[in-house]
Design brief:
Length: about 260
């Protein structure tokens, strides 16, 4: 069952509306990594779109974790846009709302009233969130405020590393639980390439060599024998080469 909770808070002079969707079984279990677009690019998109009533729609899941599109980032961006508007006499009215998950239509539908009174919708969700928001309001153009880059994990404060490219055919059981597709610069399934020096990648010397990591992990596990397995060319039809992918689950059977 979907449970909605709304709350409002006062941020400086502005009322901020939060829409939350409470469902403990649907916690975000992965992290989509993205970065906010540079302010000049965002301003240029808004000016090109035209209109004065601007709604910034944030997301409290992945992009909040990577400090790109959560509540704080939404409010900060709103302030910067207001400053720009004041200094250029644009007369922009900036509103904000932060959804629990912008990629779920239930949440997006909850802001219909706000959307009605808006000229420009600026999404601070990931590319998925921005597209779903656009599907819920197909007559409106949703501007993307975030450049979505990868799936990964936090590694220290303010740092995230790519871990998976969503190839659709995971084989990390053969590489010590470390993905060579996502973490080797050459995406070598049968590595290493031979160029690694001091454990670093020859393509990007500031990155660890994925195959050094794989070797170290397999040695730790006593499974260096796995390095002798030569994998056939990867079947990229399960990845993006096969077109947009669709996953269907038999939810009625509870699976
Ligand atoms: S093998 Fe594919 S699915 Fe598995 S971690 Fe790597 S990119 Fe992701
Ligand atoms: S040095 Fe390591 S990570 Fe870099 S391309 Fe070669 S095998 Fe891949």
């Amino acid at each position: 069952m979907c449970v909605y909770k709304t709350r409002a808070s006062l941020h400086k002079r502005y009322i901020v509306l939060y829409v939350e969707y409470i469902n403990p079984t649907k916690e975000c279990r992965y992290l989509i990594i993205g970065e906010q677009k540079p302010l000049p690019e965002i301003i240029s998109m808004i000016e090109h779109e035209g209109g004065t009533k601007i709604l910034i729609v944030g997301c409290r899941s992945c992009v909040a974790v990577c400090l790109a599109g959560g509540e704080e980032e939404v409010l900060q961006l709103a302030d910067r846009l207001r400053e720009y508007s004041n200094s250029t006499s644009k007369g922009w009215e900036i509103s904000t709302v932060t959804l629990q998950r912008q990629c779920e239509k239930e949440f997006d539908r909850g802001i219909a009233k706000l959307i009605e009174n808006t000229d420009v919708i600026l999404s601070l969700g990931c590319g998925v969130g921005a597209q779903v928001l656009g599907e819920v309001y197909p007559e409106r153009i949703v501007l993307p405020g975030i450049n979505t880059s990868s799936m990964g994990a936090p590694e220290g404060r303010g740092k995230w590393k790519e871990r998976c490219v969503g190839c659709g055919d995971c084989t990390i059981q053969l590489s010590g639980g470390i993905c060579p597709i996502a973490r080797c610069s050459k995406m070598l399934q049968n590595g290493p390439c031979g160029g690694s020096q001091g454990g670093k990648c020859e393509v990007s010397p500031d990155r660890d060599c994925a195959w050094q990591l794989i070797y170290d992990r397999l040695r730790l596990k006593g499974r260096l024998d796995l390095l002798e397995i030569i994998l056939p060319p990867k079947d990229w039809s399960k990845a993006r080469d096969g077109g947009p992918r669709i996953v269907i689950k038999n939810t009625e059977a509870g699976r």
